[in-house]
Amino acid sequence: MIGSRMTRTNSYKNGNILVAICADGTKLRYTPDGVDSAPEFPESIDLKITGYCEENCPMCHENAGKDGIHGNFNQPLLKTIQPYTELAIGGGNPLSHPGLYDFLQRMRDRKVICNLTVHWNQFVKEYEMLRLWQEDGLLHGIGVSIGNQPVQTELLCGFPNLVVHTIAGINDEDSYRVLADNDLNLLILGYKDYGRGIHYYRQNTDVDGKIRWVADHVASLSDHFRSVSFDNLAIKQLDLRSKLSAYFWDRFYMGGEGEFTMYVDLVENKFAASSTDKRMDICSDDIRDLFWIVNKTW
Question: Which of 20, 173, 218, 285 has its CA 20 to 30 A from that of 76?
Fold first, then answer.
């Protein structure tokens, strides 16, 4: 991951690493000089809680749909998630899970930082509820997935810690132009040639062209948003390493898949380094055991 932002709030120890999380979401790591990082548990978890979704997006790498089922919030490993771990809760449509509210309450009481990613349509539909959940401390950040549909940018501006999610290969120049210059945080995700994404790629010849457009305009995009960040897949597809100075890379690169993060699927009881890596059956009730496997395998 690559990102930017700042202002310190919480800190904790993870193995030999001191981790500081700022109010705006920025994360800072400190390790002793000359010592490699050795985390004992994941700093953040990509948590799939449901396979149900009414949107039926044609590029969905999770194959979410109306026949999808909900995940199990009674999975024992959830009790071993450490305070200040960041959860990126998604699906499917996570708001469709009937146990979500109670789960968020449990996580808040244990000082786990919950972030939720929703489709634009669900964001508009549940706008007031999401606002209340954030005000009540149930949610820290909200990610809103934007396609090329018309959006009301003023709704996006009404939330603190909101990040607009776009996909390289899906979003076109016009969608970035509409979002620009509204003081928004932007996350650019790589195109996942996985699930329905395989078929979408084969049927749409403009995916590679849209990826190239983003790659060619990374620098200019950063001038029009409060912050611009990328997942590891986007970093690879956009060839960001060659475009950034060593100073910038060393300062902002947050590590590869499985290095400090992992993926957990509560629907199929699987885990992996990321949602596009080979998934394995959950084999322990302790998240630290699963993270050790991810961290040493990938």
Answer: 20
